[in-house]
Amino acid sequence: MILGIIVLAVLPLTVAEEKNMSVTVPTEPIENFVSDVSFIIDEFSSAITKLVTVFTKALISIGRAIYISLIIIGFILRTTRISWRLGWELIKGGVFLAILTEIVIPILRSYNILSF
């Protein structure tokens, strides 16, 4: 008697299961996870880009101050003949740094190597 009740209770479930052969797996959790990871990666790359931009702008500003100082101090040393050779070396270093800061970095920016 009990066996008959169990068979009658389970039989409709197996018949209904056989009719619906396609098994659907919920993909919402996977899609949510992928979108969350994608959002985190996008935010991280945006933060790194901003950090590189700020760092590069600061480097350019510091470079400008340094090459101007080098050229002025070199000019003073060279014209007053306090240290003629050191003055010339400072002027050459200042000009090299000016070329690097004012020509090379804008070329790198134009090719999007430095993105800002």
Describe this structure in words.
There is one protein chain. The chain has helices at residues 2-19, 28-80, 84-110. By secondary structure, the protein is mainly α. It has a domain at 58-116. α2 (28-80) packs antiparallel against α3 (84-110). The longest helix is centred in the middle third of the chain and has 53 residues, at 28-80. It is rod-shaped and about 80 Å long. The mean pLDDT is 80.
Characteristics:
84% helix, 116 residues, 3 helices
Summarize the structure.
This protein is mainly alpha-helical and 116 residues long. Helix content is 84%, strand content 0%. The chain has 3 helices and no strands.
Helix content: over 70%
Number of helices: 3
What separation lies between the terminal Cα atoms?
81 Å
- Overall outline: rod-shaped
Mean pLDDT: 80
Work out the strand percent. Answer: under 5%
Tally of strands: 0
Rounded to an integer in angstroms, the radius of gyration calculated over CA atoms is: 36 Å
Largest sheet: none
Broad structural category: mainly alpha
Uncertain stretches of 5 or more adjacent residues: none
Pattern of helices and strands = HHH
